[in-house]
Design a protein that fits this description.
By secondary structure, this protein is mainly α. Helices cover 89% and strands 0% of the residues.
Length: 64
């Protein structure tokens, strides 16, 4: 449970930093995402999911 709370907290910190430091960049990113079709967005999401799962596995292997 502690690990899940830590992970959620880290996600919120990173998301908060993006919105606090570069709100116009977020708008540009959203516009760029709108220009992609559904399949491209789905592929980006799957790649992010796989990368995140790999990072979690690496962290667990290192003792986190």
């Amino acid at each position: 449970m502690e690990t899940a709370l830590l992970a959620l907290g880290l996600v919120l910190v990173v998301e908060g930093l993006v919105y606090a430091l570069a709100p116009s960049l977020v708008e540009e990113l959203l516009a760029a995402l709108r220009a992609l079709d559904h399949q491209q967005r789905r592929l980006i999401g799957l790649i992010a999911l796989a990368l995140g799962a790999c990072l979690i596995g690496m962290a667990r292997a290192l003792g986190a």
